Each structure stands twice: as C-alpha cells, then as structure tokens.
Amino acid sequence: MIEVRNLTKTYMTHERGHTLREVAKNLIRRPMKEIRAVNDLSFTVEQGEMLAFLGPNGAGKSTTLKMLTGVLHPTSGEVRALGLIPWKQRREYVGRIGAVFGQKSQLLWDIPPADAFYMNKAIYGVPDRDYRATLDELVTLLDVGDVIRKPTRQLSLGERMKCEFIMAMLHRPELVFLDEPTIGLDMIAKENIRGFIRSMNRQGVTFILTTHDLGDVEMLAERVMVINHGEIVVDDSLGGLRSRLGDKKSVRLTTESAVPDIRQQGLSIIERIGPLEIEIEIDISLLPLKRFIREFNEAYGIIDMAIESLPIEAIMKELYSEGAKSEIAASR
Amino acid sequence: MRGIVYCLAAVMRTKLAEQMAYRSHFALSVLLLIIGDLVVPFVTLLVYQSGASFPGWSLHEALLVQAVFTLAKGVAFPFFFGMVGTTLSQVREGTFDLLLLRPRPVMLMAMLTGFDPDDFGRLVSGSVLFGYALSGLSGPSGQSWLQFTLLFVASIAILCAVSLFLSGMLFRWVGSSRVFDIFDAVTSFGMYPGTIFSKSLQNVLTYVLPIGLIAFVPASALLGRNGWETLWALAPAAVFLVLGALYWNRMLRGYTSAGG
Lengths: 332, 260
Prior knowledge:
The complex is a heterodimer.
Chain A: E1 2-14, H1 20-28, E2 32-45, E3 50-54, H2 61-68, E4 76-81, H3 90-94, E5 97-101, H4 113-124, H5 128-142, H6 157-169, E6 175-179, H7 187-202, E7 206-210, H8 214-220, E8 223-228, E9 231-237, H9 238-244, E10 248-255, E11 267-274, E12 277-283, H10 289-300, E13 302-309, H11 312-331
Parallel strand pairs in A: 3-7, 3-8, 5-6, 6-7
Antiparallel strand pairs in A: 1-2, 1-4, 8-9, 10-12, 10-13, 11-12
Helix pairs in contact in A: 4-6
Chain B: H1 2-20, H2 23-37, H3 39-49, H4 59-93, H5 97-100, H6 106-113, H7 121-135, H8 142-172, H9 179-187, H10 199-208, H11 216-222, H12 234-252
C-alpha cells in the first residue's frame, strides 16, 4: 500500500541568539543552517496495517507524515502510496486518504459540525446517498447524534474529536493518518476513539498513527516504527519491541525498611514512589526473580509486591536515550 | 466544472452560516465597510464644493471612477482577497496543510476558505455611489455599456491577480501582515481619474502595474471617452492574471509547513 525508498528531507532555517546585539545583527545578516529532518528512510506498509510511528519531539515524524500525505515535497527519495506519488498526483491521492490532527481542527469553530460535514461532502464530491449512509453509520458508531447540530465551540474536546473523525472518514478513505488523535482526552473519550479506530481497521482501513500517548500504541498498533534524528531506529511488532530490550520486568515493592541506592547488576530504580515504596527494573536474564525476591526480602522485608512487564514508556525512554547517546558519540 | 460550482455553493453557504453565528459582528462589519468606502468620495465632494476639481473631470465623472473602483472591490474582495488573510494566518500556523489535503486545486481552496460575505457590503456602497454618479451624467450608449462590461471583467481580473501576488508573497515572507498596506498604497492610484497623473505614470498604471484598469479605464469607457481601441486594455489584464497565477503556484512550491 505504501512503499518508501530513501526518503530524505532537508530544509534551511536561520538561527540567532537572544541577546539584543544578536537580534540587531540578525536584521542585517541571517546565518542559515541546513536541517536534515528525514534521512534516507525506507519502509513499506501493507493494506489493513495499523502502524504506530513514534519518536521524540523533532525526530522527523511529522515531516515524514507530511511527505506521505503529499503536503511536502521530499528533497530526494521515492514514495508510492495507493499506487500514486503523493506530491505529484496530490488531488487524486488526497481524495483517497484521510487525516486527523489532534492539534489542527478541520471543523468550523462557530457553526455545527453538520455544516462542516456538508462542506466536506461537496469538496470531496461524495454522492448524496453515500454521504447519508456513511454519516448515519459514523454518527451511530461514535454516538454523536445530538452533538453534530450544536456549534463546535460548545462541544467538549472528546465530542469535537469524534466529529474530527467523522470529517476525516466521510469520503471513505482507504488510508488514514492520525497525528496525536487522543491528545488531551479523558480515559473514556480515549477508549471511544480507540474503539472507533479498531472498528474502522477491521473494515480494512489502513492507519498510520503518530502519537506520544503510548496507551494508544499499546491499544492500537500491531507494528511500531521508532524514528529518531530522521532515521528509523526500530521497525518491529509491539511484542518484538518489548523483547528487543531483554527480558526485563518492572517490580513495584513496599518494604519494611527503605531501599538505598542500588548498584547491583541487572537492577535499576525506575522511581521512588514513597519512603518505603519503590519501582525497580529487573533484567531477569542477569538476576532471576526467585533470587531477587529472596535477597530483597532478607535485606528490606517485602510487605507488598507487584510484578509487571516493563511498561512501553520505559522501552521508549531507553530507545530515545540510546538515540541521544549515539548522537553525542557521533558528534565527538 | 459542475463539481467546482457545487463545491463553491456549499462553501459559500457554510461561510455565510459562519458569519451569521455572530449577526451583530456581521452587520457592524458591513456598515463599517460601507462608511469606509464612502470616505474618499465624500472628500472628493468636499473638494469640488470648495471650487477645486480634477482637471477635465466633473464631480459626477470623478465619482463614477470611485464608484467603479468600489464596485470592483465589492465583487473581487469577497471571492479573491480573503485568500490573502487565509495565507497570512494559515501558513504561519501550519494549518495551510489542511488545504493541501483536499482533492481540489489548492488555489481554489485558498480562495474558498477566504470567502468573506462581509465584503459584499462594498457592493452596496459601490451601487449607491454608482447610481448617484450616473444621475448627474447623460445616459451612456449601448456601446459604452458593452465596453464597460468587458473592462469591468478585466478590472476584477486585475484585483484577482493582485490578491494572488500578495497571497503568494506570504509563502516566503511568512506572517507579513503589511501586505494589506502594500495593496492600499498601490491601488489608491486607481481611485482617481488617470489623466491627473503625468503621461509616464499613466502608462505605468495601465501597462506595467495595471491599476488604472481597475476603475479609470472602465469608467472612461462608460463615459464614452474612449473608442473600441480601449479594449486592448484587456490584454495586460489577462497577462497580469496569468502571471499572478504562475507566481502563486511557484511560491506554493516553497511552502514548508510548520513544526509538528
């Protein structure tokens, strides 16, 4: 469905300091700097996949997404999506894709979403019958029958987000790009949106998701692609991603006496929750659980304990910091 | 084509609904536009009442130039000029991306998004002024009306081209709200009879920056001051419009969006 080869995007930006002298100097001469936002990316996405595209801020995710949607032209490289070149056959291509941006609304603030839907129907040239059928289906699925006739500005963030999804799906896109689709939503609203995405995916819609909410990733993505400094760091399934960092567990303990700083191989403190409560990361290939529990119980007296797989946040933190470390090493 | 007309009608309906959400703002905007557009004609009236004049032009003839100027803005502004504001804000915020995600020509989407029904208020002030100016003149001939109609279309084309140039600039000079001042400064020449300027400036204002074509040339045609040769003015208008469209599309290619 999507084939990306050696995709690269560089752009020029100017930089200056914040002092008055530098600001004044900048009026006359602006030193330009080339930024390599995306560097030689190659990957493919199959039809019906649900791919999470992750990375720290400034990693190049949004730039890649903008090239995949045809908004930006790449500096070099090739993309074929739905059999088309997004930026060259833009009109035909965007008629077959959808996009939801958590931070860029496609609704019209002062009037009800129903009016914005009608406008999109005309822009996409959706026939009346298809429009009514799709709208009814989406409104029922998202339970927004009463909502779509109220002015957008009076809707809650969750209601607005549901309407953003309707706006993006009205023309029945085959491929949908989601950029932070659950940002700022409460748990229930997030669950509704995630349920909707899963349901559309079951109908064969391919989703490419960019998010910092790792809950979205755990609940939705089958495949995770981590990008850092414009390059792919990891491209794997969620399970594969977990096992990539070794056999690690997160152990939350309440002890009788305080646990001091640990300098034992295979152990590291994730967080000190309270004086007698601590969360520890344990690499059970280096320190088997049985030995860890026995030694900790003897040393500090375990009162309560919960063992879980390492949360995806910890995995991502490790991947992001590895990227940062390699960047520092490369610059030396 | 039918799809584009349908799309245009749907967007206009939606934009009108948007304006109607704040009726008092809409009414006030229209009223202020009408008052604003009548300031220069009012000053012209005061100038003539004080005994001064534009040489070779009666009060009603001078007002006709200003009426045509206002009428042209009344047609061009709601449809085309809004794209300047759209480009100004959306390029800066990065929301111009959303227009690129629509399966329609980007230029059309920028125009549609900028459609502003408030500006139809200028048609009211233009029509009032046009009626008043004509009331003091002998009725134009059929030939004059035909020439005027064709040249009025050229006038709209010029204003559309100016919108394209200003909007296009904003892809590179992001956030330069002074483009509106540039427009006011350049087009203000068009509000006065061209013959009050030197011959060289008249040529510049007709063939280089065809500002004279916005009002002076069509009004002169309606007054029967020119023959059929005046229709040559359609050529620079067409060239200016084509250049505007080429420039806009070229500048669009430099659009870099905003950080995500």
